[in-house]
Amino acid sequence: MEKMILNGEIRNRSEIKMELEDRGYQFGDGVYEVIRIYNGKLFTSEMHLTRLIESASKISINIPYTVGEIEAQLKDLVAENEITFGTVYMQFTRGVSPRNHAFPSTDVTPVYVAYTKEVPYNGALKPGAKAITIEDIRWLRCDIKSLNLLGNILAKQKAAEAGCFEAIQHRDNMVTEGSSSNISIIVNGELKTHPATNLILNGITRQVMLKICKDLGVSYQEEVFTLEDLMAADEVIMTSTTAEIMPITAIDGQSIGSGEPGTVTRQIQQAFHAEIERQCGHVIESIVK
Ligand code: DCS
Questions:
Q1: Shortest-distance Cα residue to atom 1 of ligand 1
Q2: Averaged over 131-137, what is the pLDDT?
Q3: Is there a single domain that holds both residue 52 and residue 147?
């Protein structure tokens, strides 16, 4: 029987009922995280849960647990559901209250749910993917991992309609990030990525990648770059929890660099896989479902 977490307790998923006037359901008034599971272990969970609590605090939702407490609950859930490779999704909404835009006047308890999903994994490096470019029409607090994802959804749908994997967003000709990923470019062996401002989500994969660059001696700059820089780059890299380190080999129908994953991207991908194995143990292909 599949389990999930409701307000800190592990329950049967089929028995969970959500409220109509949950502010997450009506307003997208909440925050979320997605954490990867490799070999039954949570990857970079401390970074994700720290960001979750920060996102919540930026919109005045008080999460009544510490990072360690949530982590322990998620570990139990992953074990109960016997997930070897997959993801755990969790969200906190402001809570249940009669519909009214302003915060509830009385204290309401946040509603916290988490559930797992199996995702096959064999450690193979991700092949090149195609992207489109699109205007960034989102709000100005993209640093908050909010449940409000309409702008992101509309962008991703445009990519899907164009037969592409990701939509790379830009504001005033400056590249911000993907619809559900961060975007970096490699020019003359140097990596460039948007600084962690209010205009992007400071991705955990992005942060791991920058640490890898440091270790590999790949110099990097957290600096804005233009659409022209993007199209003329030697390599373009997309990073996210679900996509990991993914080479973008064509944008708007035009090849990037040679049209194949570049050497710096491949190096970073290999080092990222090594980091997964360092944190979660060796990935044995035969146990992949
Ligand atoms: N930017 C946006 C807008 C995102 O939604 C995400 C992740 C990222 C960047 C990359 O962040 P992480 O490296 O921390 O994952 N989006 C999550 C999502 O909605 N599903 O999977 C990942």
A1: 181
A2: 98
A3: no
75 flagged as catalytic: no
What average pLDDT is seen over the chain? 96
CA distances to 29, 34, 35, 175, 238 from 18, rounded to whole Å, are 15, 20, 22, 38, 34
- My answer on whether 167 and 211 are in the same domain is yes
Residue 240 lies in a domain: yes
Candidate list 3, 145, 156, 192, residue with the active-site label: 145
CA 289 to chain centroid: 23
Pick the closest to residue 58 from 23, 94, 102 (CA basis): 94
Atom of ligand 1 nearest to the CA of 87: 21
Domain containing residue 107 = 3-118
Q: Give the model confidence (pLDDT) of 232-258 as tens digits.
A: 999 999 999 999 999 999 999 999 999
CA of 98 relative to ligand 1 center, distance in Å: 31
pLDDT tens digits along 60-80? 999 999 999 999 999 999 999
The gap from C-alpha 34 to its chain's centroid, in whole angstroms, comes to 6
Residue 289 has pLDDT above 50, yes or no: no
Q: Buried (b) or exposed (e) across 11-47, using 16+ Cβ within 10 A?
A: eeeeeeeeeeebbbbbeebbbbbbbbbbbbebbbbeb
Residues with CB under 6 A from ligand 1: 34, 152, 177, 180-182, 201, 203-206, 239-242
